[in-house]
């Protein structure tokens, strides 16, 4: 196959992506992981993490009933504990957007919809476009699109860029999260390159994974993406959001991610406007740890509803 | 969330399992012996200036007793043992150190001011690893030096610095004992406690009396040790100034000498480097252990095209460096080891300002008691500036830019020292091209301050001679009669 035709401007943009050293990235992360969160700081971190969750269900077997349950949980994480934050959003397939939108009402919780033939992205653009429009017409506040990983790996950067830009154009008022599926990309250099590409193409958020592939949101990958966001901000003053997704199921991991954000990007990103966790089971561990911080005792997991 | 800062709460390591005696005697011939000098000095915690213990101050007569004990132990016991037997003792010591790792780490932090994170994750595990490593060599010396008939030297006098007290003790004692020597060790006066704890470990391990002797004291104790006529070897780690005195004192004697001295190591970032990792590497190179590291990357050279970006990133990174109580698990930069050293560093910072360099320090609050220094960057530094030429031994980085590789190699080598260097580039060929031209005992590529017992360490030029660590480290404690 002939090598793909890329616009020279795009190529010169990507040529500026700095090299990423994997060993150094792992060490940087290890250093963050030795940080110790105690007392009020831990409590605050747990609350922050709760407020940043995109409570997610992305199963073939999802039913309207399941989605309504999830939306109720999103608004009532644990009513036995007073003054808990709500999650940021509920994340569903396009077919469930209308149901979620209705169930969440005026709670302030956003509805995010995956789109563009999630999770593989293996569909013609017309299908991806319709997929996105359907979600938007049903009221999605946020679109989580997947990139065409095959095209990216083949070096067809223009195709990937154009696709993101075209979807972004559809999202007139919705925020666009671009999912890289980093578990399918080869190296941190590739992660950095796609981050720079997606940001240039108009991503509001960059997101690691679909949750369907392992490995997902590993720390070195997240660090690399945060680095791209930081460099973009330093250059343009524009903030881009970050959403790690997949495998972040414990409070400990979530807090380490937040510390990473704090040190790499700064505290401006520590709100659910700029940072999200894509997770289905994280909330309950955060609640369990929150109760432990408040009362000094661990509760049984049975005291927390599963959805 | 809210607009207030998400500050980390204190997370203090417990000191409950550390027992510090009110007074320490000298460890000679396997016993605690009151000093003939009848004098003691105070050891204080540099983090809050509180008193930790009274420590015996050995004079010449005390040193003489220790050397005699070491000589007797060498002649009667240690030289009679097989390598395998010596190895067993070393393995036992290594395991006991591991068992007491937390206690040793807390003690190191209390006595010397280094962050508990580093004492716990670097100093103590590495010290244990050195004993394990050299324990393995004890019965393989013939294989290490085939056909060379390696023989122990006899009695070694060893003087260790205050920056890595236990680790430097391990670098000195482990190879010496593995090769069949006995030792008299003098730890630095501000950091004696882990050496004295090590003496307890030797007792617990059943090490024959006199094989390891610890004489505590100031420089005069060290001078008495160096001058003792019945030593076969002097090993010293410390300043170049003291190293020169020691070398003079050893002239005309049969003492073998190894010196591991100061440094002013260059850390070089080329324009194609992985920048974020390089910035992190610079932080690690200069602020590790408050910059009290002989191989600290204290001179940063950045290629012009990326200099602004690197500097901006360094400044931003400094905002999330925690300076404060070394016992806090989140502390990155702990206490300066002593008031004297703090004054030295402050003098150099003042000098840098007088030399016209531009200073940057983050806005962080320092504890009111104790000895602390903010991490400090100097830009617009001339090659001829004293802050770029002299070892500061503190958290102070000088930053210079360069255009060509030829220029940076010249500047990096333009120093009386030659201990270490760092090179950051994404191109493998450049790593080899540049590192071959650098006069430094160690050149790290895309990393810094990495140590392993299997890897030799030592300097060029005024950074000393002889190697510690690895197979090379054995050679320093052996002679080869035929």
Describe the structure.
- The complex is a heterodimer of chains A (307) and B (482).
- Chain A is of the alpha/beta class.
- Chain A has one domain: Alpha-Beta Barrel (TIM Barrel), CATH 3.20.20.
- In chain A, 47% of the residues lie in helices and 11% in strands.
- Chain A has twelve helices and eight strands.
- Chain A has helices at 8-15, 22-33, 39-51, 64-75, 97-104, 125-137, 149-153, 157-170, 188-201, 219-236, 251-264, 282-295; strands at 53-56, 89-92, 110-115, 142-146, 175-179, 205-207, 241-243, 277-279.
- Chain A has an eight-stranded parallel sheet with strand order 7-6-5-4-3-2-1-8.
- In chain A, α3 packs antiparallel against α12 (282-295), α4 (64-75) runs parallel beside α5 and α9 (188-201) packs across α10 (219-236).
- The model of chain A has no long low-confidence stretch (mean pLDDT 96).
- Chain B has 482 residues and is an alpha/beta fold.
- Chain B folds into two domains: 23-261 and 461-479, 3-Layer(aba) Sandwich (Aldehyde Dehydrogenase, Chain A, domain 1); 266-445, Aldehyde Dehydrogenase, Chain A, domain 2 (3-Layer(aba) Sandwich), CATH 3.40.309.10.
- Chain B contains 16 helices and 20 strands.
- Chain B has helices spanning 60-76, 83-99, 101-112, 116-137, 141-144, 165-178, 193-204, 219-227, 240-250, 275-287, 307-318, 339-354, 386-389, 405-413, 428-435, 470-475, and strands at 23-24, 26-28, 31-33, 40-45, 50-56, 151-152, 155-159, 182-186, 212-214, 233-237, 256-260, 266-269, 299-303, 358-360, 376-379, 396-402, 420-424, 442-445, 464-465, 478-479.
- Chain B has a seven-stranded mixed sheet with strand order 14-15-16-13-12-17-18, sandwiched between helices. A six-stranded mixed sheet of chain B has the order 9-8-7-10-11-19, with helices on both faces. In chain B, strands 1-5-4 form a three-stranded mixed sheet, with helices on one face.
- In chain B, α15 links the parallel β17 (420-424) and β18 (442-445).
- The radius of gyration of chain B is 22 Å and the shape is globular.
- The N and C termini of chain B lie far apart (75 Å).
- At the A-B interface, α2 and α3 of A face α10 of B.
